[in-house]
Design brief:
The protein has 13 helices and no strands. It has about 350 residues and is mostly helical. The longest helix has 28 residues. It starts with a helix and ends in a 21-residue tail after the last helix.
Length: about 350
C-alpha cells in the first residue's frame, strides 16, 4: 500500500495533516526512493474548477451578487456622484463583506471548491472597495487620493482574508492592489495619470515603469519562497506561487522587453533576443511557464520587424519550437539542471530526472 499525492492533498484538505507536513512527507519519500533519479514527469498544476457543479454555483453567485448590486443601487459607484451617501456605502459594503465571508466559510473551508472560491475572493475585493469608499467620503478626497485609500484598505482586508481562508487566487488580487497603490501614490505626487506605455517603458519620464519592474521582482521573490517551500507541488503553497508568477512574469519581462523593442536599434534587438532566451531558461529551471509565455509576443514582433519577408517562416518555427518544448518540457529541464553546477536553492527546486547521482 502506498500513499500518493492525491491522498496527501485529501489529508491536507480534511485537516489531518498540515501543508508543511505534506510537503515534508513527499520529500522524505523521494529521498528514500533514491533521491530523484526515478522521478516521473511533473506537470505544473493548474486547476480552475473540479466539476460542472462548481460552474453551476458560480453562475448562482454571479446572479446573487448582481441582484444585490441592483438592490443596493450600485453603491460602490456612489463615491463618484455629486451627493455621495457615506452611510449607504459603508452599510452595504459591510453587509457584502459579512455575507461573502459566510459563503467562503462554506464553499471554501468546508466544500473545498475552487471556482466559487475565486469568484468569492473577487466579490470580497469589490466589497472592500465599497466599504473603504464609504469611510473616505467625509474627507472630501481628491480624484486620485480616493483610489489610493481604497487600494490600501483593500490590500490589508485581502491579507486578513487570505490568512483565514488561504485561497491562492487572493495572492494575485493582493499583488494587483499593491501595484495600483504605488501607482496612485506617485500620481498624487506628480498629479498626472500614466498611460499604458508609462507603466512598462523605462525610457519614458516618470517612475511608473521602475515601480512595475521592482514590484515584479518582489513578487517573483515571494513566489519563489512559496515554490521552494513546496517543491513537489502537493499543497496550496505552490498554487500561491503560481498566481504570483502570473503577475510577476509580465511585470519583469514586459518592462525590459518593451523598452528594448521600442528603441529600434539593432544592438537592443540583439539584447532583447538574448534576454528572452534567458527568461526561457529561467522558466525551465524554476518549472514555471509564465515567463516563457510573457516573452512569446515579443519574439513574434521581433520576427516581423527584423525578418520582414521571412517573418511567416519565423513565426511558424516559433510555434513548432513551443510545441516541442511543451511536449518535452521535463527532458529539456532535466538537461539544463544536470548541466548547471550546484547553486543556492537548487535542492529546493521541483524535482527533475537526474542522470547523475547528485541530490537535486
Amino acid at each position: 500500500m502506498s500513499v500518493e499525492d492525491d491522498d496527501l492533498r485529501a489529508a491536507v484538505a480534511s485537516g489531518v495533516i498540515s501543508e508543511a507536513q505534506a510537503a515534508a512527507l513527499t520529500n522524505l519519500a523521494d529521498v528514500r526512493r533514491g533521491v530523484r533519479e526515478a522521478t516521473a514527469q511533473i506537470e505544473e498544476p493548474f486547476e480552475l474548477f473540479r466539476g460542472f457543479n462548481e460552474i453551476f454555483i458560480v453562475v448562482g453567485l454571479i446572479i446573487l451578487y448582481g441582484g444585490w448590486l441592483a438592490f443596493s443601487g450600485l453603491q460602490i459607484f456612489d463615491i463618484f456622484s455629486d451627493d455621495p451617501v457615506s452611510t449607504n456605502l459603508i452599510v452595504y459594503g459591510l453587509i457584502s463583506l459579512v455575507v461573502t465571508i459566510g459563503l467562503t466559510g462554506y464553499f471554501t473551508l468546508k466544500r473545498r471548491m475552487i471556482a466559487p472560491s475565486i469568484l468569492l475572493s473577487m466579490i470580497f475585493l469589490a466589497s472592500s472597495y465599497q466599504t473603504a469608499a464609504g469611510f473616505v467620503v467625509g474627507f472630501t478626497p481628491g480624484e486620485y487620493s480616493t483610489p489610493l485609500i481604497m487600494t490600501g484598505f483593500a490590500f490589508f482586508t485581502l491579507l486578513a482574508y487570505w490568512y483565514w481562508c488561504r485561497i491562492p487566487f487572493v495572492m494575485l488580487l493582493m499583488a494587483l492592489n499593491v501595484f495600483a497603490f504605488f501607482t496612485f501614490l506617485f500620481i498624487v505626487d506628480d498629479n498626472s495619470a500614466p498611460d499604458l506605455a508609462d507603466l512598462f517603458l523605462l525610457s519614458n519620464e516618470g517612475p511608473f515603469a521602475v515601480i512595475t519592474f521592482v514590484l515584479g521582482l518582489v513578487g517573483f521573490a515571494i513566489a519563489m519562497r512559496f515554490d521552494m517551500s513546496d517543491p513537489h507541488r502537493v499543497t496550496r503553497r505552490s498554487v500561491n506561487g503560481f498566481w504570483l508568477h502570473v503577475i510577476a512574469a509580465p511585470a519583469i519581462v514586459n518592462t525590459i522587453a518593451l523598452t528594448l523593442f521600442e528603441s529600434g536599434r539593432a544592438v537592443d534587438q540583439a539584447i532583447l533576443l538574448a534576454f528572452l532566451i534567458l527568461m526561457a531558461v529561467v522558466a525551465l529551471i524554476i518549472d514555471r511557464r509564465s515567463f516563457l509565455i510573457s516573452g512569446v509576443g515579443y519574439v513574434v514582433a521581433l520576427s516581423v520587424t527584423v525578418m520582414e519577408g521571412g517573418a511567416a517562416l519565423a513565426v511558424l518555427l516559433l510555434g513548432l519550437i513551443l510545441i516541442l518544448l511543451g511536449a518535452n518540457w521535463e527532458r529539456f529541464r532535466s538537461t539544463i539542471l544536470n548541466i548547471l553546477p550546484p547553486f543556492p536553492g537548487k535542492s529546493k527546486l521541483p524535482p527533475w530526472n537526474q542522470i547523475s547521482g547528485d541530490a537535486a
